[in-house]
Amino acid sequence: MNSLLAYTYWVLPFLLAMGSALALVLLLFFASSLSPRWSAATKLTVIIAAAFVGESVYGAMSGRLLYNELEIARNPWLGYQIVGSPAASLVKKAASALMLVVSGGEVIRWLLRRSSMHVNVLPLYLAFAFYYLAMVWVSAAFGVVREFSQAWFYAPIVFTALALLAPEGLHGAVRHLRWMLVLGLLLGVLPGAIELKRVVETGYEGSLIGLPYRLHGAASHANSFGAVALILLFLELSPWVVRRINWLNVALALTLLILSQSKANWVALLLGAPLVRADALVTLWRKHAGALVVSASVMLSAWVLYAASTDALNSLAWHAADWRSEEAFTGRGAIWAITWDTFLKHPVFGYGPALWDPVFRNEYNWSVAGHAHNQFLQVLGRAGIFGAISWLLLMVRLGQGVMREQGEGRWLGMALFVALLCRSWTEAPMEPGAIAGIDGLGYLLVFVFAVAGLASAGQKAGVGVRHSGAGV
């Protein structure tokens, strides 16, 4: 009997793994058979929205409570609270599986058809592949600490599917995505009706006077939740997406963006909103140039007076001069300094994927940072110079792609790219595992817009898809 139990103990996990692998293969082929029946826009919407909506549902069901840095410093165990329920975890895993199955089905269908990607899209796709290899496998193989995560396997499958679907399905997908974002944002704030601390971090000293809290929603951080609200705002303002602005959705997105107290997203709004409405602004400038100059001068004067009255300029100068201290840039300065010093110790291939994991944080007595809070420094620290070259190449290709989009969609793509750059200054939204949740939403959208822009430019120039064997 004991030998039978021992045999079952050792063999059962193997059988479960084999059964799961077989089920995944069957699901992928099932998805590939359904693929012709679904439009490219539908598949794009499912891939982009699945993980975001799934994480929103998970956050709404998890029962997690939010604590600020002072509360965690007083009681470090608060940073390791166990949250979630079996049902919540199942929903999140199902959403990730849906994203993977639909993407994998499209890739299998592409391989079976033995066709190739659009010629103009190949340089961008190869830049992504270079960045992925540098951040994942090269850093894992040659970094100081070697570890692996199943979330890393999502990226090549998902991005390959996006590269195949975006040229045809982008326009319809962003129209559907608006309502997925509204649903996700509402799910993110819903738990606040039960207990405010589920969605709000209290005791936060932000930029809004008299508002000592910031809204996290269902996201892991307020900045991530604010970024989703910003994307919804851009989509609602874009004449390429909507014929008439839905002011209720605009009010929802703007309110949540303000309450998130994310200054990087606020800056992205100021820079990106004029881009989204660029054609309308050009027409307005031609008719009312004088009034616009006066309005801009009044707004600039008001900002200068506000900065002078609140000592904001001196504060910014102090933060810049003493950027390595824990007080500078809300703690990010010290995180940047630690990451930079880590890069200097391991300059070629970096520290590896374990950068800013719990073990790394404990070495520096840091309790809450999950990454370098700067995408470039995160790449440098994790993958060294090799990774930095790959990231810079990818950003150049993404920028070229969004600027090649035709019509008003070009301005929306450029606004999303600006938002990604602003987030990259204070966060790490392009981590390999970020696409399986809320954090990677902006990165996915910018990639899709860049692919569509390159493909449309190629079609205009008479360059199409090559048909020379399977794969790229």
Description:
The protein is mostly helical. It has one domain. The protein contains 16 helices and 2 strands. Strands 1-2 form a two-stranded antiparallel sheet. The longest helix has 36 residues, at 154-189. It is globular and about 55 Å long.
- Tell me about the largest β-sheet: 2 strands, antiparallel
Strand order of the largest sheet: 1-2
List the total number of helices: 16
**Succession of helices and strands:** HHHHHHEEHHHHHHHHHH
By secondary-structure content and strand pairing, the structural class works out as mainly alpha
The percentage helix is: 55-70%
Spans where pLDDT lies below 50 across 5 or more residues: 4-9, 313-323, 466-472
Q: Could you say which overall geometry the principal axes of the C-alpha atoms support? A: globular
Mean pLDDT: 80
Query: What is the straight-line distance between the termini?
Result: 54 Å
The structural domain count equals 1
Tell me what portion of residues adopts beta-strand conformation.
Answer: under 5%
How many DSSP-defined strands?
A: 2
